[in-house]
Design a protein that fits this description.
Shape: globular
Number of strands: 6
Helix content: 25-40%
């Protein structure tokens, strides 16, 4: 089994879509850790605020199969991939970490995800997996979050249901 850390986000009916995604992840992977959901401004475009949270799962799926399963879950929630990269989303789920694997190079899948630099990805992950070590820097998520420029700022927590 491999520990995978996922980042979830939505800005179109976000409470509904994130709640449903967490339930689907529980149904597929069993006991999971789920962070609070935080409201954050859209990044890279003008749009409604996002809700972002994070989930830790244990999986026997290889990375490519996990990524495909998550894409199918996004699609089941109306994810539209025809528009610009930075746009409104019903559901966005990214594998941020997959064990200690590092994936770089061609293709869309990069592990750890470069979006880890954003507070909306890092804070929820640090909430539920503070001792997880980033295989690139060797630092824990807690240490990365404490060093982040937005550490100490207040983030609005939103209940999913």
């Amino acid at each position: 089994m491999t520990t995978a850390l996922l980042s979830l986000g939505s800005n179109l009916q976000p409470q509904q879509h994130l709640h449903a995604a967490v339930e689907a992840l529980r149904a597929r992977f069993g006991d999971i850790l789920v962070s609070p959901a935080y409201r954050t401004a859209a990044v890279g475009f003008d749009g409604p605020a996002f809700l972002n949270n994070a989930v830790v799962i244990e999986t026997d799926l290889p990375l490519d199969a996990l990524d495909a399963w998550l894409h199918a879950l996004e699609d089941a929630h109306g994810r539209d991939r025809s528009g610009p990269r930075f746009s409104d989303r019903t559901l966005d789920i990214d594998v941020v970490f997959y064990g200690d694997l590092i994936v770089e190079g061609p293709g869309h899948l990069r592990i750890p995800r470069p979006e880890l630099k954003h507070a909306f990805v890092l804070k929820p992950l640090a909430d539920i997996a503070p001792d997880f070590r980033d295989p690139v820097s060797g630092l824990t998520l807690d240490a990365l979050w404490r060093a982040h420029r937005q550490h100490g700022e207040a983030f609005e927590v939103v209940e999913l249901r």
